[in-house]
Structure prediction request, 110 residues.
Amino acid sequence: MYAIFVVGGKQYRAEKGDEIVCEKLDAEVGAKVTFDQVLLVGDKVGTPFVAGAKVTGEVVKQGLGKKIVVFKYKAKKNERKKQGHRQAFTVVRIANISVKKEAKAEEAAE
Prediction:
């Protein structure tokens, strides 16, 4: 079973045991994290989120991405500006995908 969930404004598709590289989270290495903005779990589609669905994981690594060079240049003005940037990221290993059963809603429908 897989899930699509939102972390830091981006959507990720993951199964149990997968490692995802997402935007930096405020958590130490080894800490447990829970994502409750789940858009889809298996065959259940949310409007916009699936009620009672959670994706839990463990922080594996915190780090910085490859350096990119930002170079701004204006011709004939001797104007040059060189900057570098390294985007922070977090690697999370997905431990569990769970959906809460909605027995009360099913009983009320009958």
Notes: Confidence is low (pLDDT under 50) at residues 103-108.
